[in-house]
Request: fold
Amino acid sequence: ETGVTQTPRHLVMGMTNKKSLKCEQHLGHNAMYWYKQSAKKPLELMFVYSLEERVENNSVPSRFSPECPNSSHLFLHLHTLQPEDSALYLCASSQDWRQHYGYTFGSGTRLTVV
Amino acid sequence: AQTVTQSQPEMSVQEAETVTLSCTYDTSESDYYLFWYKQPPSRQMILVIRQEAYKQQNATENRFSVNFQKAAKSFSLKISDSQLGDAAMYFCAYRSAYQGGSEKLVFGKGTKLTVNP
Reply:
C-alpha cells in the first residue's frame, strides 16, 4: 500500500459523460494535490487543497471540478471533457502545503476522452 | 516564474555502470529546494533525493547522489551501480522556500532511463 490510492486506474469516457476520479490518503497529511501529466510535457499543477480548503487553482477549465470533503479524500469531477484532456491524472499529498519535504504520489488515473 | 529543464529525453546505461542525468533550472530566488523523482512503469512518482539550496554539501541516498552547482543552477543526478529496477522516468523538480512565494513543485519534462542487462 503506497499511502495514496487513486481509483479508477484507467478510465475511458465520452465527451458528454460525467465521471469522477478519487484519491485517498491514510498518511495523516493535511494537503492534497491534483497534477496532470501529458506526454512530453512537464507535470502541471491543477489544484491544491489544505485542510479541505482550496488554496490554489492554476487556471484550470471549469469542466474540471475538485472536491475535498475531508483531509483524507480528494475528488476530481469531470464533465464535457475534450480529447486533449486525455492524460495521466496524479494525486499527491504532503504533511502541509508549505512544507518542503516532497510529496507522496498515487499511481494515477489514465484518462482517455473519446 | 521558475523553469526546470531536463535536456536528455532518454538515456541508457549498462547494468552495474554509472549514469548521470542532467537538470538545470532558472530562478531569481536564493533559497529553494530541489528534488529528483522516479516514475517506474507502475506510474507512482517516488521521491529519490532532496537538496536544500542553502546547503553546500551534495545530498546522497545510497547509490543516488547529486551534483548541485548553485551558481550554474545545475542539479544533476548520479546513479551508481545501476540496477534493472532503476529503469524509469526521472523528473527534476524545484520548489521555492519563501512563504508567500509559489509553494508548488515545478517539474521538468523528464528523462527516460533504460538499464541494459
Q: What stands out?
A: The radius of gyration of chain B is 14 Å.
